Every structure is written in structure tokens, then in C-alpha cells.
Amino acid sequence: MFGNLCRCGSFPYLASANPFRMPFVTQALSRFLFLGRGPEGAPPAAQRDARIDVIRGLALLIIFINHMPGNVIAGYMPHNFGFSDAADAFVLLAGVSATLAYGNLIERRGLAVGALKIGARVWTLYIAHIAVFIIVCGVVAAAVTRTQNPLYVEAINIQPFFSDTFEALIDVLTLRYQPSYLDILPLYIVLLALFPVIYLAVRISPLGTLLVSLAIWQAALWLGLNFTNVHAAGWFFNPFAWQVVFTLGVILGCATQRGIAAPRLPWLDALAVAFLVCAYVAKTSSGNPIGIALLNDWFDSVQLGSDKTNQAWSRLLHVAALAWLAMRWLPAGEGMLRHAVGRTLAVVGRHSLDVFCTGTVLAITGQIILAETGFALGPQLLVSAVGITLLVGLGMFLTWYQSITLSGAADASAASRRASAQPH
Amino acid sequence: MRCRSGTVQTAFQPVLPAASKALRETGKLTIVAIGSSTTAGAGASAEDRAYPAVLQDELRRRLPNADVTVINKGVGGQSAYEMLLRMDADVVELKPSIVIWQTVVNDVINHVSEDKLAKILRKGILKVQAAGIDMVMMDLPWLSREGRYPRYDEYRAILKKTADEQGVSIFPRYGMMRDWARSKRFTPEELVGMDGTHMVDAAYRCLAIRLADGIVGALTGARPELAVSPRPTN
Questions:
Q1: What residues in B contact A307, CB-CB < 8 Å?
Q2: Chain A residue closest to B109 (CA)?
Q3: What pTM was computed for the model?
Q4: Is the separation of the CB atoms in A353 and A125 below 8 Å?
Q5: pLDDT digits (tens, 9 = 90+) for B159-218
Q6: B-chain residues within 8 Å CB-CB of A156?
Q7: Domain tally for chain A?
Q8: Contact assignment for A155 to B109 by CB distance below 8 Å
């Protein structure tokens, strides 16, 4: 499976063959080249941008709600109103924060140290994935033996683990078997393992890297390439496709790292807003709202769903439009921490791995509770509220825990800043 | 014969013109079973105990002169939409003469909107019909406690309505399972498995036998071999 990774060896070569000349990129390029040398040229100690934590915290809570289908609140979540959803935002931000954490490390201490640190993080993610898998199997086994409802097993495609445990165990450990809801960490493992290559390519040419990344995505789509999932058609999040979103995140991260703010481009703002409005109209109307017969099929297809496995242009442009507007209009730096809501979400976003894993287990437990209570409204709201409270509480607890246990951490804000450097 | 209890109440008499023609002209009968866990064989003791494998054995035994193949394209946990996305690659390109589409159960679990589901099913059916393939849709499974999914019957109704509108035969799994459960000829373990998960071997075998009855009936006009052979069923 990981043999596929060598594909990306072509990144730096191809990227360097494409010197692009857009002003934004050229500026970034010259600074990359300049900053790559010597400690004096190290990137400015960028102030942690709270937008990343806030949006990531929000995405985590949305993912928790969405992982309980049938929950009324899920009907108001962003995927109903646009092409992309919390997963796209989450992967994009994973790229941004990986750059801020490991990109800076690579700049300061070199590629070897950065790669080692990434290796350690990949290992943590792997262990977390396996642990969540085992816990989820336990939750479902407990539910099924008590309720005799076979559909709990169906809901997350966990049957292979119970019917052929030997085979399934090996496949789980090699990431070749991923039940539903347990598919995003494997994607992140692959993307983070690829990070050094993507990062080095972006240092040479962001736009070139993006083009190579898009080409790999389209080629994989055309050739039908995906990683193996033995009990499904392939990985639910096809890494060949989703690396595009991550790469976009790395590029944005590099820009942030170099202190390049989004330039004032009102026409681009307008274009992004127009795209979001179009997406909203297309998703929420029934049938074809503009009546051009040629577009009937397109409206039909976006209303039925989008190909989440292989990404889709509509999803990618949607998340890119959102990212652009967030960079332009959300207050940078600590601006979003002025409100209690922003602070709360940031605390969740800073501990994204812990919150994500806990959220997965809680959501699957929640699914079972919702079904056992016949999807009555009261329990739905209660389960959602309790889950959100627990996840926010976990974020707060971990922040506090780190502040009191970090060696020599009298300064709590330093502690939280260090915590935020841990992506995902 | 316990698989056939209630045959009258839950009759399965599909219309299979394309398959009849293909069988007559080429001697071939190729069936693709597309679906989620029930098709993949969740809960079966071995791969060859999943319903498509048993169906292939049954059809080969009953149509000894035909070249019968049943291809299993079941993927556990998939919704109708996910199957629609692979309908070309997994069904149409294999050029079968019959498709058995087992779906909707994951749409119930995921609360896919009912209008959307009807559209997805219609698209899937039209795609298959446009390729000149006969389709059979499998009804949802019977559950001992449906209250968990308050709109279970509505989802079944959408499946039935869409299939009827497009002239597609429905394999009445729900009614059959209910009759099997009520007939007391099966232990609950045989129907849903010791861990409460899915139909196990006996129920898969019965599904396959009842499907074979209907398909052979439509292709040859033969009636189910009631009490003819001593060992068609357990």
C-alpha cells in the first residue's frame, strides 16, 4: 500500500521545472528561498492564528453531530447548504497546522529532525486509530448482544470483524479494513507521512506543487486508483484525491508561516461569495431552479450527493472559496478569541486528535441511543447536548491539564501555544 | 420445505424478458447481485454460504443445460447512492441479464431524505434498464423491533412505489422473513444469528432458494419443486 507513496517523489522535480510568476507566489517564492538559509533567516515567530483552532473546533463538533444520522440538528449542518462539509475544512486545516508545526521544525532543525517528529506523530495517530477501532467494536458488540438489533453492525460495516476476526485483525492493523466512521485517521496518517515531500515541493513552488497535486488527483480518478479497503470499494477518503485538499492547506500554511496575508482582491471576494450562493441555491432548491435544461443533470447530481471518496471539483472549489473568505474577513491573530464562543471552540480545536477520537466513540454510542429511543426529539437533543458538552469539557480539561503538568509552565499561555502546535 | 412456508402469501413471480431471451439464444444466465451486507454475506459461516453463491448452486442444479454465473457485488454498509455510483462499473459493464439490487437498509439507518432516495433508486433502475438488463429489487429485511426506525415502512413503500413505477419485480424478503420467524420452524438464532447480526446460513439459503424458485419459474415456467427432491432444502 505504501508503495504508492513513491509516486510523490516526482513532486520536487516537476515543481522546480515550473517557475510561476504570479506576484503573490513570486513574493512567497523569494522569501522561501531567502528564509531557507541559516538561522538568522528563520521565519518570523508567527503568532498563533486563532482562526485555525476556532474553525477546527467547529468542524470537530459538526463532525460529531453529522456522525449521528437522523439527528434533527444534522439537518442544519453545513453539508446541507454547500458542496463541501466539515471533513474538507478539517483536512485543509490539517495541512495548515502541519505546516506551522512541522514546517517550522524543518526550517529550524532540518529535514531529518522534522521527519522523525512526524514519524512519532504518525505512530500516535496509528495507535489512536487502532484504539478507537477496538473501543467501537466493543460498544457495538455490547449494544447488539443486548438489543438484538442487527442494523447496528450494518451501520458501521463492522461485521467482518465479528465473522472473521483473524483476517479482519490483520487487515485493521495494515489499514486495509476501515469500518464506516473510522476512515479519516488512516487518511491523515498517509497525508502526514507525505508531508515532508509536499512541504519541500511547496517551498520550491506552491503553484507548481498544486498543479502536480491536481494532476495526481485527476490521473487517479481516471485510472480508478485508490488504496485497498478489503470490505468496500476502496478507502472512503481516497488519499490520491484528498491529498489535493491537504496540499492546499500546506500552501496556505506556508503563506501564513512567511507572514504573507491574503491580498486585497475584491473581485475574488465577490467570486467566492457568488460561488457559495450558487452552491446554496443548487443544494437547497428541488429540481432545477434556473430552468436551463442543459443543467438538469448537474442539479440532479449535486442534490443527490457528491463523490466524497474521490473529492469533486465542486467540493474543492467550495472549500477553497470558504478558505479564501476566512482568510480575508475573519479577524486574524487572536481576534476570534475575544468572544466566549471563539475561545471555547479554540480549546476544542487545539486538542483535535483527542476530541476527534472521543467524538467518534460518542457518536456511535449516540447512534445506538437514538435508535433505541425511536429517534424521539427529546433524546436526540439531549444526546447532542451531552456529547457537545463532553467534547468541549474534554478540550478544557486537556488545556488545564497541560498548563499544570508542563515542566516549568508557569506561563499558561505558552502551554496552550505549544499544545496548538500539535496538529490534529 | 420450511423455506417455502408462506409461498402463497409472499409470491415472487418476476418478469424477466431479457434473461429469457439471453438464455434461449446463448444458453447463458449471468446474474449480478449488488447490495450491502446481506449480499456480501455478513453473518454467513463462509463465503460460499452467502445468498449469491447458494443461488448460483441452486440455479446450476435446476438449469443443468445453462451456463449460470452469479456475481457477488455486495459491499457492507453501502447506501443506495454509493451503489448508484458503482452501477456502471459493477453491473452494466459485466453485461449480466439479471441484476438483483438489495438496498435501502443503510438509507434507513442514515435517514437519507425520502425524495432523494426515490430519485436515486429511479436513476439506478433506469441505468440498468437502459442497458437491457432485467432487474429485481430486494425488499428490506424484517426486523423484530422496527420501532427503532419509525419510518421503516415509509422507506419500504418508497422502494415498492419506485419499483412498481419502473416495472421492476420485487423480491418480498420482508414478508418471507416475517413468515419464517412466525412459522416457528426457525430458531431466532438461525434467522438473525447468535450475536443478533443478520441472517445466518439457514436464512441465506432460504432466500436463495426462493429467488431461484422465482427466476426458474419465470425462465422455464416451472413451478417450485415442492416435495419432489428429497434434498433441495434442509
A1: 85
A2: A155
A3: 0.83
A4: yes
A5: 999 999 999 999 999 988 888 878 777 766 666 553 444 456 788 888 899 999 999 999
A6: 77
A7: 1
A8: yes
Residue B32 to residues B28, B97, B198, B200: CA-CA distances in angstroms? Answer: 13, 8, 21, 21
3-state secondary structure A281-295: HHHHCCCCCCCCHHH
> In degrees rounded to 5, what are phi and psi of residue A34?
-70, -45
In a domain, A57, yes or no: yes
Kind of pairing between the strands at B67-74 and B98-102 = unpaired
A15 has a pLDDT exceeding 90: no
- For residue A315, give the H/E element and its range: helix A313-329
Among A155, A224, A232, beta carbon nearest to B75: A232
pLDDT for position A136: 95
Are residues B76 and A162, on separate chains, in Cβ contact within 8 Å? no
Domain, as residue range, for A389: 47-405
Contact B106 A155 (CB under 8 A): yes
Nearest CA among A224, A215, A261, A308 for reference residue B110: A308
From A87-91, A278-282, A371-375, B3-7, the region with the lowest mean pLDDT:
B3-7
**Amino acid, res. A224:** G
User: Which secondary structure element, helix H or strand E, spans residue B74, and what is its range?
Assistant: strand B67-74
Distance of CA A352 to the CA centre of its chain: 10
> A–B: how many Cβ contacts below 8 A?
109
Q: Look up the ipTM and state it.
A: 0.78
The answer to whether residue A146 is domain-embedded is yes
Which residue type is seen at A165?
A: T
Give yes or no for A164 touching B (CB within 8 A): no
Chain centroid to CA B49: how far?
14
**B99 SS3 class:** strand
| A77 burial level (CB within 10 Å; 0-12, 13-18, 19+) | middle
Question: Considering only alpha carbons, which residue of chain A is nearest residue B150?
Answer: A374
Quote the cell numbers at residue B3: 423455506
The Cα–Cα gap between A321 and A331 comes to 17
Q: Does a structural domain hold residue A133?
A: yes
Residues from chain A contacting residue B191 (CB–CB below 8 Å): none
Rounded-to-integer distance, Cα A355 and Cα A59, Å:
11
Neighbours of B48 (CB within 10 A): 12
Which residues of B fall within a CB distance of 8 Å from A153? 37, 42, 197-198
Helix residue ranges, H only, B134-225: 152-165, 173-183, 188-192, 201-220
Could you tell me if residue A103 is left (phi over 0), alpha (psi between -120 and 50 degrees) or otherwise beta? alpha
Q: Rounded distance, CA A406 to CA A416, Å?
A: 10
Closest Cα of chain A to B101: distance in Å?
17
Determine which of B140, B148, B155, B174 to mutate to test the interface with A (most A C-beta atoms within 10 Å).
Answer: B148
Smallest Cα distance from B227 to chain A, Å: 33
The alpha-carbon gap from A154 to the nearest alpha carbon of chain B, in Å, equals 5
Cα A230 from Cα A74, distance rounded (Å): 30
Is A304–B81 a contact, with Cβ atoms under 8 angstroms apart? Answer: yes
Residue A14 lies in a domain: no
In whole angstroms, what is the distance from residue A319 CA to residue A325 CA? Answer: 10
Strands (E) across B75-160 are located at: 98-102, 134-138
The bridge status of strand B98-102 relative to strand B28-35 is: parallel
